[in-house]
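Workshop exercise sheet. Pairs work together: one partner reads the sequence aloud, the other fills in the structure field after running the prediction. Swap roles for the next sheet.
Pair: D.N. / O.F.
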Amino acid sequence: MSSSSEQGGTTQLHSPADLSKKGWFIKFLNGIERLGNLLPHPITLFALFCIGVMLISGIAGYFELSVVDPRPEGASGRSADGLIHVVSLMNGEGLRLIVSNLVTNFTGFAPLGTVLVALLGVGIAERSGLLSAAMRLLVIGASKRLVTLVIVFAGIVSNTASELGYVVLIPMAAMIFHSLGRHPLAGLAAAFAGVSGGYSANLLLGTVDPLLSGITEAAAQMIDPDYTVGPEVNWYFMFVSTFLITILGAFVTEKIVEPNLGNYNPQEASIDLSGQKMETVTPEEKHALKKAGWATLAVTLVVAALVVPEGAPLRNQVTGDVAGSPFLKGIVAFIFIGFAIPGLVYGKAIGAMKSDKDVINAMSESMSTMGMYIVLVFFASQFVAFFKWTNLGAVMAVAGADVLNAIGLTGPLVFVLFIAMCGVINLSLGSASAQWAVTAPIFVPMLMLIGYAPETIQAAYRIGDSVTNLITPMMSYFGLILAVACRYKKDLGIGTLIATMLPYTLVFFVGWVSFFFIWVFALGMPVGPGAATYYMP
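Structure field:
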């Protein structure tokens, strides 16, 4: 369901020739791959983390480890002695706490319900054929001058529909470039850059937004028990980032990647390219898309009528503002409706959904793909709860904040190191939720203690988590991308693919980080509706 996939898959293909040609950096990345292969499955990793937290809490509790609580006197959750003590789980009380809360840790884990509800709507739109048809219409109908921009843009927006970008768009982009007399691997790279490198950017809220915000909220509540983080808190920044990544991706494709690839020789292909055909959008699909478009407009107008007018029922009934309103608190419901109704209309028009049984099957199939994610959430939720109960996250956050204050690294530049660190971790732990579940309980409280809001911290994390997706074999779709690339260049190895994608990672990192600083600190713009830049206890 993401570019930083929940599957944690790996690729075993290596090319010594590629490594000798591309030098030390490819050797370094190959080492990262070997290191990643040594790591257990993310689910096993979280189970081990749970055991590790228990053991560490027992040792720290025995030695009565504590730090000074930075929260003011009288603050919620502050102990009478003004210290944060590590609480041991290696005793009878800890055992009772674990056993009695095992189920509620899982069922109460914020990202679980919100992601599943949103995916029900996305499943209807995807399995009716709406999303596939819309993507094909967007890409195949693009002019030759704009085709690169459109492919990168389509890759970014495809992230609302799980694996659609990987399975449909990337092979299609390679075919489109070949049909235009351009290098097919350049088309593949452009689509891959949009789908995976621009993973967090999007025009619409998708399943990743509630997934991350729930983890962020749990981490923030280690410092402020009443702090809430909604799925919409990064929407402004990610909306505008869509156009930034589109422009940067098209620039790298046309000015760096395609010239370096040179002219394409069809004899390098491992398949007969003459038999390749692109599925065009049929008149029936266009008719159904028009109906779905009208349905989308109708849904938008209804929601606007419930939110925009003063005194509207979905505004904040106390302040009259949109901030803190039922609309924003229930945004997942509107993600569901926004995909489900147009998907249903399209499915009816095209004949893919003739009865309620077809709609139910679409939602059921969507849920059936989430088995791995649900198992991962079970163990991740236990880890997050254990970390909170033991106060290890708070202790590490306070200690880390003290170090940052001591060395004077409390200004905005701290985010450069934070984003770079997230990018490096992503090279070997390629799951967005797994990585954030591990790092958020430490870094969200730490950066809150030096004055930054969780919403801003989460936006920075999403940059680091996205830009290195393109060069890590730990990303579970990497093997699929390599297989598609080998159709057009039969001797292509993993080193060549990584070297092809490396310019995107470097340009995206510099460009996106620079834009983050301009947006947040130079212009003082919020990263989302009601989102603060600085944390004020």
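Discussion prompt: The CA atoms of residues 285 and 324 lie 40 Å apart. What would you look at next?
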